[in-house]
Amino acid sequence: MSDLRNLALSSKAWPFEEARKILKRYEKAPPEKGYVLFETGYGPSGLPHIGTFGEVARTTMVRRAFEVMSDIPTRLICFSDDLDGMRKVPGNVPNPDSLVEHLQRPLTSVPDPFGKYESFGAHNNAMLNRFLDTFGFEYEFISSTEFYREGKFDEILLRAAERYDDVMKVMLKSLREERQETYSIFLPIHPETGRVLYVPMKHVDGKNGTITFDDEDGKEITLPVTGGNVKLQWKPDFGARWAALDVDFEMYGKDHSTNTPIYDRICEILGGRKPEHFTYELFLDEEGRKISKTSGNGVSIDEWLTYASSESLAYFMYLKPKTAKRMHFDVIPKAVDEYHQQLRAYETQDAAAQLNNPVFHIHGADVPKSDMVVPFAMLLNLASVSSAETKDALWGFINKYAPEASPEANPTLDAAAGFAVRYYHDFVKPSKKFRAPSDQERAALEDLAAALRDVDVAKAMIDKKNAAMGKGDAPVETLDYSDADDLQSIVFAVGKNHGFEPLRNWFTAIYEVLLGASQGPRFGGFIALYGVKETIALIESGLAGELG
């Protein structure tokens, strides 16, 4: 066993913890099917969304962790429940009235309102595949319609008919009394209208594998459960799918957690082995409400990718999946900068630390190097003070700070500059609120401007700060105004000399007076990037009340 594998077996990163559970399933013998199967499910009634990305990304992280620890082959399937009946007409499609007559028909039997595919289900499945392919996920797609109609579910469906009473006992315990009277695990597809029927069963013949029921007009119909003539209700379908495919791992949101015992027991009744499952917490919007694709609150996948890279989104998905997190626009800059911090850290870490680094779980062993020589938060502030309309305007400042950088040599930074301009104009600019400085703040800002104009003044201020703090440092001999650390020392000394306690009040004053925000970048680094002369002019404008 390799050293890397040994390290993975003891890693506390959550994907490794989940992967070890799967490995334990096969500690006595490898899977008879020849591989470990990971599954994600998709309801194709609408377009893929940020939750779809998160589920596939996180499942891929567990799969990747398993592959470090084991030589057993793996597969990841994305299963589309496209045999579900269309319960309502979506409001975001062309000519929605034309779909009304197709209500309750399987999505793969509903015409595509966009006129591009053979059905509405096929259209949404194509959108899912394109969505997943865009992010480079490795997966296999399975259509529920094909799975049922091609007989791949037949064995399990016949077993469900044979063990109907046992499966019904599990389901009836979870239903209200009035629902129990009409419930059946089987949903027949009417042979004439093609609609998915929610009707009680008059008889289930386990020996012959048929069901008998009355349709909506009172006509008695008998159908075989095989060949796509029926589908299972969604909860039994969950467990039956696990049994049919021999699924080893599936994750889903906390809203499914109360159903886990139901899924597991049905899987076992139908002859399967319940998989390992991972329940993740749901995302919340800025007001603490659950994010819903129906209500459109929170951040959509397209919105995130308007302001940041998909890698930063994957990083956000990695973090504490069992903790509910606000997912609003203000989390994006932090996620971007933390992702690049982890990329830089990865290069200096030993193998054990690398396996615990989120970027390993995002990229595997092929972790890229960060070319972000300027943090995203700094780019936002630069866009703010320069009122940048394009990323080219930011590059003029970037090249003063990092002359060797270029859009060609630093493509991630170049993209981030464009993201920063968009983010600034859409979110930062509308909320900027400048204020006038207090007398103490005004005196300190005047001294800061003086220190930036005259290096001797700056040296004297640092010496004064050192003496007041009881430091026996020798007098400052040199200061480099292009060095972010030296500039930060000047800013720090001015704040100390003017008695700001705690010192963060000084930096808050800088941000609120000069940047129109309560938080901001490490100001020494900002001066190095923006320019000393430009910062002096910014301070003068702030003191004159011209920034608001």
pLDDT averaged residue by residue: 92
Strand segment tally: 12
Name the beta content range: 5-15%
**Radius of gyration, Cα only, in angstroms?**
30 Å
> In oligomeric terms, what are we looking at?
single chain
Q: What portion of residues is helical?
A: 40-55%
* Distance between the first and last residues' Cα: 64 Å
Bulk shape = elongated
Strand sequence of the main sheet, in spatial order? 3-2-1-9-10
Give the helix tally: 24
Q: How would you characterize the overall build of this protein?
A:
The protein has 548 residues and is α/β, with parallel strands linked by helices. Among the domains are: 283-363, no CATH class; 376-431; 439-543, no CATH class. Helix content is 49%, strand content 9%. It contains 24 helices and twelve strands. It has helices at residues 3-10, 14-25, 50-69, 120-134, 144-149, 154-162, 164-172, 177-180, 234-245, 260-269, 301-307, 310-318, 332-348, 351-356, 358-363, 376-386, 391-401, 411-431, 439-453, 455-468, 484-497, 504-515, 523-530, 532-543; strands spanning 36-42, 74-80, 140-143, 186-188, 203-205, 210-214, 220-224, 230-232, 249-253, 276-280, 283-284, 325-326. The protein has a five-stranded parallel beta sheet. Strand 1 (36-42), helix 3 (50-69) and strand 2 (74-80) form a beta-alpha-beta unit. The longest helix is centred in the C-terminal third of the chain and has 21 residues, at 411-431. The chain is elongated. The model has no long low-confidence stretch (mean pLDDT 92).
Please give a handful of descriptors for the protein shown:
alpha/beta, elongated, 24 helices, 5-stranded parallel β-sheet, 548 residues, 3-stranded antiparallel β-sheet, 49% helix
